[in-house]
Amino acid sequence: MNYRMNNQDQTLAGPKRRGPVATWCVVVFVVGLLVRLALALALPNHRITQLEKPEPVQIALSLLATGRYADAYGSGTGPTAHCAPLHPILLWILFEMFGTGARGALAMTVFGSAAAAAGFALLPAVAVAGGLGLSSGVLAGMAGALLPVNFWAQTSGSFDAPFTAAVLAALCLLLCRAWAAARFTMFEGAGIGVAAGFGCLLNPALIPVLAAWSIACVVLYRRRLFRILAFLAVAAVCVLSILTPWALRNYRALGSLIWTRSNFGLELQVSNNDMMTADLERNVRQPEFALLHPYLSPDERAKVRIVGEAAYQRSKERQAFAWIRSHKLRFLQLTAQRFRLFWFPNMLRPWQSAFESALTLLGLSGLALLFWKRYAFAWVASPALIAYPAVYYLVQVSGRYRLPLEPILFLLTATLLPGILRQRSYATGPPTMPIGRV
After folding, report:
1. Is 258 within a domain?
2. How far is Cα 282 from Cα 394, in angstroms, rounded to an integer?
3. Whole-prediction pTM value?
């Protein structure tokens, strides 16, 4: 079975092709950044001069004040791995430069807006590298730049979602280039592995995506299995090399070899009990939520101080699994509801919910079209769409959790327009890469 992926030399290698692609990437980035900043300044409820202080910001403030990666739940809660380290460290650098007052809050908004804009700005390059054509990438990138419907997640900067969106788009670009060239050199494997390693230090939800891409790579290029396995092995070694210093730090500071972040047990228990629903935004408005999470509960913070974060997280994990075993039907109901809320979220305004739901349906329709027409980019997009949200089916869901997938959904939606894929065949060269028969 043949799948279309344009030869790398026909897409990105020549200067005539690189020029328009780079130009459009810059244009989309500038438009996306300006739109987000304009809305942040114009909307009265978006307090860009007041510093939000969720766990990543708390850790950054601890680094600024004490030099310790600690106190995710408030002062005195001790060393932490609640968040993967890259985002809090970036915020710490930002606060070092701009302070923690109004200038620091504004800088965080600009930082988050720039990351979200970058995720969409990469789409022209991803589309060309993936054989979809420049037109589809420009259309998707500009649509995403001009329509920041998932607005708060794209501008706050206090959570990792916009940064994860940019990293996931960058990884899609690197993977498309590797598949199009089909050389699978050790150097390419090392480059993807280093990028993926830093991505995992930003958000470990990328790890299942990397595993799914590896499986897809083996399936599609099975005739070159030895080279593929060597390529993937080099990438895996690079990922582990990037993660190891952080894991060793956690072993010294917390007494446990934590490779990315420690909070899965806590989030699982907070999400699966007799009081909570599947919707995070609804849960945080309930008084019971403040009884469960150490960020809000003095009693839970005291437990963290007494036993340490690693032991506390393990105890929360045991509580969660005990509840799941004794409430199997309720857990399945919550899981189904979380699946629905991830793909069809309840946003603040009904029109936002309708837009996000339409984006899901159109994006999945575009993916089906790519499989039907045997475009190899379907094998880049589908593992991300399947693997990335898997962990979020187990914990309470927020609209910001899906933001990293939205650039991919915009790109898949663009392929539905008449003439887009047909134009690709003539504009960027013939489909010369019969994946699976190489």
Report:
1. yes
2. 16
3. 0.92
